[in-house]
């Protein structure tokens, strides 16, 4: 029962869609009603409000970080059996919450920023390297879907290398697969050569 509470709490934290929350707080249109319709930082950036986009990015990353750290705290306090398995499940739950948030009719983002926060919580080396790769590719190609997809591929490899607990590897693998699946439209556009750049109508961020 305590394990279920930890996982459910992580899902509910993930269900806090900062793209929608920040937009409402700043009197902006719902990001699900314009651009790509994706409630993430890149779509919020289309509004022209860079501050709102940055707050969305930070909020989505922070909830991934906080959910996993909170799960780790509860697992320790409650002395839950198989702690690594529970933390891994909570890591997956916060990502699922972001992608399918119960508070926003299950219409969520793609999970890039939240996945970054999760990785930072699991192992700071995995998180920093993955985020570094994302930043380098995003800056170099100016297409955040390319950066996101490459980051999704290398994240499980880094997890396997740095983290001995296999439960975390399985969780990161599933998150990466879900993230890639959420980018199916971006992949189609990349193959067609019609994917937009970050400075234009890009649709790939969280």
TrEMBL record:
<keyword id="KW-1003">Cell membrane</keyword>
<dbReference type="GO" id="GO:0008654">
    <property type="term" value="P:phospholipid biosynthetic process"/>
</dbReference>
<comment type="function">
    <text>Catalyzes the transfer of an acyl group from acyl-phosphate (acyl-PO(4)) to glycerol-3-phosphate (G3P) to form lysophosphatidic acid (LPA). This enzyme utilizes acyl-phosphate as fatty acyl donor, but not acyl-CoA or acyl-ACP.</text>
</comment>
<keyword id="KW-0443">Lipid metabolism</keyword>
<dbReference type="InterPro" id="IPR003811">
    <property type="entry name" value="G3P_acylTferase_PlsY"/>
</dbReference>
<keyword id="KW-0997">Cell inner membrane</keyword>
<keyword id="KW-1133">Transmembrane helix</keyword>
<dbReference type="Pfam" id="PF02660">
    <property type="entry name" value="G3P_acyltransf"/>
</dbReference>
<keyword id="KW-0594">Phospholipid biosynthesis</keyword>
<feature type="transmembrane region" description="Helical">
    <location>
        <begin position="52"/>
        <end position="78"/>
    </location>
</feature>
<dbReference type="GO" id="GO:0005886">
    <property type="term" value="C:plasma membrane"/>
</dbReference>
<feature type="transmembrane region" description="Helical">
    <location>
        <begin position="143"/>
        <end position="162"/>
    </location>
</feature>
<feature type="transmembrane region" description="Helical">
    <location>
        <begin position="85"/>
        <end position="103"/>
    </location>
</feature>
<feature type="transmembrane region" description="Helical">
    <location>
        <begin position="115"/>
        <end position="136"/>
    </location>
</feature>
<comment type="pathway">
    <text>Lipid metabolism; phospholipid metabolism.</text>
</comment>
<keyword id="KW-0808">Transferase</keyword>
<keyword id="KW-0012">Acyltransferase</keyword>
<comment type="subunit">
    <text>Probably interacts with PlsX.</text>
</comment>
<keyword id="KW-0472">Membrane</keyword>
<keyword id="KW-0444">Lipid biosynthesis</keyword>
<protein>
    <recommendedName>
        <fullName>Glycerol-3-phosphate acyltransferase</fullName>
        <ecNumber>2.3.1.275</ecNumber>
    </recommendedName>
</protein>
<keyword id="KW-1208">Phospholipid metabolism</keyword>
<comment type="similarity">
    <text>Belongs to the PlsY family.</text>
</comment>
<dbReference type="GO" id="GO:0043772">
    <property type="term" value="F:acyl-phosphate glycerol-3-phosphate acyltransferase activity"/>
</dbReference>
<keyword id="KW-0812">Transmembrane</keyword>
């Amino acid at each position: 029962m305590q394990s279920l509470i930890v996982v459910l709490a992580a899902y509910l934290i993930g269900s806090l869609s900062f793209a929608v929350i920040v937009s409402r707080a700043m009197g902006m249109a719902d990001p699900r009603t314009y651009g790509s319709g994706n409630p993430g930082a890149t779509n919020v950036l289309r509004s022209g409000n860079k501050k709102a986009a940055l707050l969305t990015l930070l909020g989505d990353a922070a909830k991934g970080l906080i959910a996993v750290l909170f799960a780790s705290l509860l697992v320790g306090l409650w002395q839950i059996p198989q702690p690594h398995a529970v933390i891994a499940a909570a890591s997956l739950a916060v990502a699922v919450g972001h992608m399918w948030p119960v508070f926003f009719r299950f219409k969520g983002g793609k999970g890039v920023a939240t996945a970054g926060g999760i990785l930072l919580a699991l192992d700071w080396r995995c998180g920093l390297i993955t985020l570094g790769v994302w930043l380098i590719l995003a800056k170099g190609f100016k297409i955040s879907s390319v950066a996101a997809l490459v980051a999704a591929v290398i994240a499980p490899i880094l997890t396997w290398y740095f983290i001995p607990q296999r439960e975390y590897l399985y969780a990161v693998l599933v998150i990466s697969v879900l993230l890639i699946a959420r980018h199916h439209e971006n992949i189609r556009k990349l193959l067609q050569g019609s994917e937009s750049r970050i400075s234009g109508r890009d649709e790939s961020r969280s």
